[in-house]
Amino acid sequence: MQRARKKLMAEPSLMERYIAHARQTDGYDTNMLGAVKTLKIGSWVYLRDTRSYSIFIQADSSVAFGVLGLTDRIRDIVGGSGKFFEAGVIEINSHYVCDGLIAGVVLLGKGYMQSYTKTLATLRQQGHFHTHDSQSVQSANAK
Hints:
Order of helices and strands: HHHEEEHEEEHEH
Number of strands: 7
Largest sheet: 5 strands, mixed, barrel
Shape: elongated
Oligomer: single chain
Strand content: 25-35%
Distance between the termini: 24 Å
Structural class: alpha+beta
């Protein structure tokens, strides 16, 4: 599944063909097709959980998102918070959702966790922490 996802991202024409084909099919879900377009695959720091979402910081520390798990909580998938990994994030129904295809999980040490906690505070102050804004994932895709 991860290889298929990478292939779709490496060859955007495949994604466009899929979307065009799906639109010709009876009963296609417009929300899901819109979400597919926002897919951002990248390296993320999974800092910690709140009551509402898991905090993901993009690897380059330029943006952070409050992310939900697609079917399970992120901490249940990766065995706790404080991890670095590759995953996909989509925006659907005003929520950021992890696609659950997580690879290359690395445990972060205490120093990294402290550093990323400071990074999150800075991103919040700068308005770069997002929980419900489709423009944010699309902006991250442009990087």
